[in-house]
Amino acid sequence: MTRVNNDFLKRIKKSFRKVVGIDLLVDKNAKIDLHIDPLNNNFNNTKKLQNFKYNILPSIYEKKKILNKKKHKKIFTFFGGYDFKKIKKKVLNLKVANTKFLFPSTKKIFYEQMQNSDLVLCSGGLTVFDAIYLNKIVIAVPQYEHQLKNLKVLKKNEVISICKINSYFKNNLLKLIEKSLNFTYSQKLAIKTKQKKIISKKSQIQTLEKIYELYV
């Protein structure tokens, strides 16, 4: 989270009529017109879970009905714009029978590939919430401590799995991948049902409407 003081806000106000803060640490009496905290780690787990729905995701209008005509299982693989722990390098040589790893090369195909995948393997940033919104089976590998805190809340609510980087990382990840790809229909449906309670198109639109209302 970024700390913003009142002096900075005053300078911003000279150029903009309204200021919306997302996951900011602000001084007391900060003059922000709307403050949203979808990923604030200063809250308890219950409050964090409630706040996840305030995320505004790039995938909000990308959700489509997918027809499954795949011969092989596909694993969508993305570890953020900056892969701090070089996770991609660790998974490049993994071999999973009848399975293909997808590494999106452009923004244009990013969500198309994610939706057409059987499993999403990602770190703990917004991509994990994109995957939850798109109702995918998810294995998350945290890059930072603040990501791990959010992921633990999601795991406790049974919407993702977590694989930490340690000396057993590859073996643990392979076991998780095999387990996730072999979920039964009822297991997948149970995860999807719980995911819809975390974030939905409706919850994102409600957040956007709060922002739009500032200009009415």
Explain how this protein is built:
There is one protein chain. The chain has 216 residues and is of the alpha/beta class. It has two domains: 2-57 and 202-215, no CATH class; 73-200, Rossmann fold. It contains nine helices and nine strands. The protein has helices at 6-13, 45-51, 87-91, 107-115, 126-133, 145-156, 169-181, 185-198, 201-212; strands at residues 2-4, 20-22, 24-26, 34-36, 73-78, 99-102, 119-122, 138-140, 161-162. The strands form three sheets. Strands 6-5-7-8-9 form a five-stranded parallel beta sheet, with helices on both faces. Strands 1-3 form a two-stranded parallel ribbon. The longest helix has 14 residues, at 185-198. The two termini are 29 Å apart.
Architecture blueprint of SSEs:
Layout: E1 2-4, H1 6-13, E2 20-22, E3 24-26, E4 34-36, H2 45-51, E5 73-78, H3 87-91, E6 99-102, H4 107-115, E7 119-122, H5 126-133, E8 138-140, H6 145-156, E9 161-162, H7 169-181, H8 185-198, H9 201-212
Parallel strand pairs: 1-3, 2-4, 5-6, 5-7, 7-8, 8-9
Helix content: 40-55%
Number of domains: 2
| Strand residue content | 5-15%
Which CATH architecture of the largest domain?
A: 3-Layer(aba) Sandwich
Point out poorly predicted stretches.
Answer: none
Q: Would you state the CATH class of the largest domain?
A: Alpha Beta
